[in-house]
Amino acid sequence: MSAVPKIVTSRREYADSYTLERYKTTGGFDGLKKALSMTPEAVCAEVDAASLLGRGGAGFPAGRKWSMLRKSDVSYLVINGDESEPATFKDHLLVEHDPHQLVEGVIIAAFALQVTQAFIFLRGEFALGLERVQSAVNGFYAEGALGSNILGSGFSLDIVVHPGAGAYICGEETSLLESLEGKRGFPRIKPPFFPAAIGLYGEPTVVNNVETVSNLPWIVLNGGSAFAALGEGRSTGTRLFALSGKVRNPGVFEIEMVKTTFRDLIFNPSLGGGVTGSGEVKAIIPGGVSAPWFYPEQLDLPLGQDEVADAGSMLGSGSIVVMDTSTCMVKAAWRITRFFSRESCGQCTPCREGSGWLERILYRLENGQGRMEDIDLLLDLCDNIAPGLTWPPQQTTICVLGPSIPSSIHSAISRFRDEFVAHVTNGGCTHG
């Protein structure tokens, strides 16, 4: 694997990477100063040239999202840091270890959009991250890089750091906006509530992910073409992946998109270091627990947006979970479904009721009370929540949480039905 630049983790080696002093001695503010010397249109053009895909899950091009912002006297920029998906922790790394890079990226994005009010919405449980991001914001104000007339440019911006209340659903952009407005985090119906048209407080709003805007200082400094030269096709640049599960070296790794495969990430000694336990991959979750699973035959698939989508799943939240041959697939599906059942906002019937029914059936299978007909009952319920059990799923709810629930169950039964049968015949789980 050839060396690639560390775009969002360049300061990771420093123990004091989160401090303003370290940031200033390692190129901090350089991207912002260059952006402020350009026109907003020129900054947008560089982001377009970079072909930067959103790093929050949907993978929508950031430049295109910016171009959709409805012209208005009032508009907002909101940064989604409500990273709540199980085994997803790459944004957590950025807010704790390089909060100034995040804030600089927010200012660059706001300048490009000519927005004068931005919000950074962070998961409330990120106590240390919240403290460090707020400290970074305070530092930017003290340096004259936030507030009125930023660095003498004539551009002004205020940033509010807002802690969420621990609701997974607020990772969905319209739920996040509801929460910011002081309401319960219910997803909004789209249309008409596309944030770029009707967003925060009813005004046009751009919602970007923490990692997405953290790329902006590097893109402005080095040019969009330099970013686009990394990766391949639509999947340009580098991306953070949170690797966990049955691996020797779990953690967050910045790798070049497409040029790296699942096998590289899991087995390279400088990355995942191989599989623990049996040493054999049984299945992998490629993009957060809402994604359909992959199996050993997909290990050589490139880590690219389209490549993974064409194979029937998604890179999603950048979380890759490895399961080895000792893993009970019934238990894995049950634990994922239990999470979704608990985190459903309750607004839509298929998600609210269906998730609970699925969780109860999986519970009794795992705990020795299952019936043989429960296996097909699970698939029937899944088909009602996401008709056809295809990917991407058909929408039966306002947001995608509901139709994503069947992914793990359908994956587990399709490949490991014998384990479900064994749970019935043996009176529960036989794994350790």
Shape: globular
Question: In sequence order, what are the helices and strands, one letter per element?
Answer: HHHHEHHEHEHEHHHEEEEHEHEHHHHH
* Assembly of the depicted chains: single chain
Q: Helix count, per DSSP?
A: 18
Low-confidence sequence ranges: none
Mean pLDDT: 96
- Provide the number of structural domains: 3
- Main β sheet profile: 4 strands, parallel
Distance between the first and last residues' Cα: 37 Å
- The helix content is 40-55%
SS-derived structural category: alpha/beta
CATH class of the largest domain: Alpha Beta
CATH fold label of the largest domain: Rossmann fold
What's the gyration radius in Å? 22 Å
Percentage of residues in DSSP E strands:
5-15%
Provide the CATH architecture of the largest domain: 3-Layer(aba) Sandwich
E-strand count = 10
Architecture blueprint of SSEs:
Layout: H1 20-25, H2 30-36, H3 40-50, H4 62-67, E1 76-81, H5 90-97, H6 99-113, E2 117-122, H7 127-142, E3 158-163, H8 173-180, E4 205-209, H9 210-214, H10 216-222, H11 224-228, E5 231-232, E6 235-236, E7 238-245, E8 251-256, H12 262-267, E9 281-285, H13 305-310, E10 319-324, H14 329-343, H15 349-366, H16 373-385, H17 401-404, H18 406-425
Parallel strand pairs: 1-2, 1-4, 2-3, 7-10
Antiparallel strand pairs: 5-6, 7-8, 9-10
